[in-house]
Design a protein that fits this description.
Elements lengths: L14 H11 L5 H21 L8 H20 L9 H13 L7 E2 L8 E2 L9 H18 L8 H18 L5 H17 L4 H29 L7 H11 L8 H14 L11 H4 L11 H34 L3 H26 L16 H22 L12
Antiparallel strand pairs: 1-2
Length: 407
């Protein structure tokens, strides 16, 4: 008699195994971060569209394409495991130096105006500012340096060594010279030192030494001016911007004029603004560099205090979400990356908005996710990819913060 066919039971895979497999294929998404970034990028495109109207030097379609490319780059980096980068300190240092010094190569670098050699030109391609891209490698360099100390740096020789490495990109960028970008490098380094566990006494001494060094530069430059008839250590426009910050009436036709027009544009916006595409200051060409350095003024003029409040709320949300991601980091390297990125964003936001209101010296620092520009746009999305990578590769492994002291 034939035996009935046997029915073999199929063992279902364990739920934890399925979840782990899905995590490897689709790294954990952070919905709040994605929503905030989408809103910021969209808001930026709305304001840029108005700012570039009637100006043949700028293209809205190009900026929109850059945002799309940046989003793709962000997704790719989100899937990449940032922990693979923790041991490449020397490589990051070399890349930093090469990137920042590229504009000095004859035939490659172009003058950004006022004697600053900060851009490179590759044939028919748009100009690129390597110093902006170097912000990424500066963050990775500083994070990898400080991660070696396991959250506690109390040896003065090791502190001087770490500080010296972090100052190399700043010294290189000052050969262009680009003081605004250099200040961003310094602030990133300061965040890395604080989060990385450097002794407060070391930090206070460094701050005091920096203030003394700045005073010495100004004093020495005056001596040089008296003997040679011109300033050598600081460019004339750099001195002008710093002095105009102290007294806007010193240069009524130059930097002082730019500051006044920026303040007029902001003040004319009132509570709800003059209306979208109705701003007069930038439409008449009175507001300088409206799509780039002074994009905040376009927003304030057309959308008023309400539009500014929306932007600031989005920035606050971005920072809070990033802090939560930093708290999820299972290692000091990931924590340092996120905190340095947040520090860079905060510095650029405060500096850009502050300079348009007369609260900070005028610099060429762009407003994150708002200012027009290829280099800055792609760079910010790369930063987002790194932040997302920290989130994805800690939640996928079940880590919820609290890195181990590996020293």
């Amino acid at each position: 008699m034939a035996q009935p066919p046997q029915i073999h039971s199929v063992k279902m895979p364990d739920k934890a195994v399925v979840d782990a497999t899905r995590s490897r294929r689709f790294p954990s998404l952070n919905l709040p971060l994605i929503v905030v970034v989408a809103l910021l990028a969209g808001y930026g495109l709305v304001v840029v569209y108005s700012a570039v109207q009637g100006d043949p030097d700028y293209s809205f379609s190009r900026q929109a394409a850059l945002v799309a490319v940046g989003a793709v780059v962000m997704i790719l980096l989100w899937r990449f495991d940032y922990r693979r980068l923790s041991e490449f300190t020397t490589l990051f240092l070399i890349v930093n130096v090469v990137l920042i010094l590229l504009p000095h190569i004859p035939g490659l670098g172009t003058d950004a105006g006022m004697g600053s050699q900060s851009w490179i030109k590759l044939g028919p391609l748009p100009q690129v500012q390597p110093g902006e891209f170097a912000k990424i490698t500066v963050i990775l360099l500083d994070a990898s340096v400080m991660a070696r100390y396991g959250g506690k740096l109390d040896d003065v020789r090791e502190y001087c060594k770490a500080l010296g490495i972090m100052l190399i990109p700043f010294l290189c960028i000052m050969t262009q010279p680009d003081l605004g970008t250099g200040l961003v490098y310094l602030f990133i380094g300061a965040v890395a030192l604080v989060v990385g566990g450097a002794r407060p006494k070391f930090l206070l001494v460094t701050l005091a030494a920096g203030i003394v060094a700045v005073a010495c530069v100004f004093a020495l430059d005056e001596v040089v001016k008296n003997s040679t008839g011109e300033y050598k250590l600081l460019k004339e426009y750099q001195r002008s911007r710093l002095l105009v910050f102290l007294d806007p009436e010193l240069d009524p036709t130059g930097d002082g004029y730019n500051l006044k027009q920026a303040q007029i544009a902001i003040g004319s916006g009132g509570l709800f603004g003059q209306g979208y595409l109705q701003g007069s200051q930038h439409a008449l060409g009175i507001l300088p560099e409206a799509p780039t350095d002074f994009i905040f003024c376009v927003l304030a003029e057309e959308l008023g205090f309400f539009g500014v409040a929306v932007l600031l709320a989005l920035y606050v949300a971005l920072v809070l979400v990033s802090f939560r991601i930093a708290g999820s980091a299972g290692d000091l390297f990931g924590l340092l990356i996120v905190m340095c990125v947040v520090g860079m964003w905060l510095f650029q936001i405060l500096e850009n908005i502050g300079m348009t209101c007369g609260l900070m010296p005028i610099t060429g620092i762009p407003l994150p996710f708002m200012s027009y520009g290829s280099t800055g746009t792609i760079m910010n999305f790369i930063m987002l990819g790194l932040v997302g990578s920290v989130w994805a590769h800690n939640t996928a492994t079940g880590k919820k913060g609290g890195y181990a002291n590996t020293r």
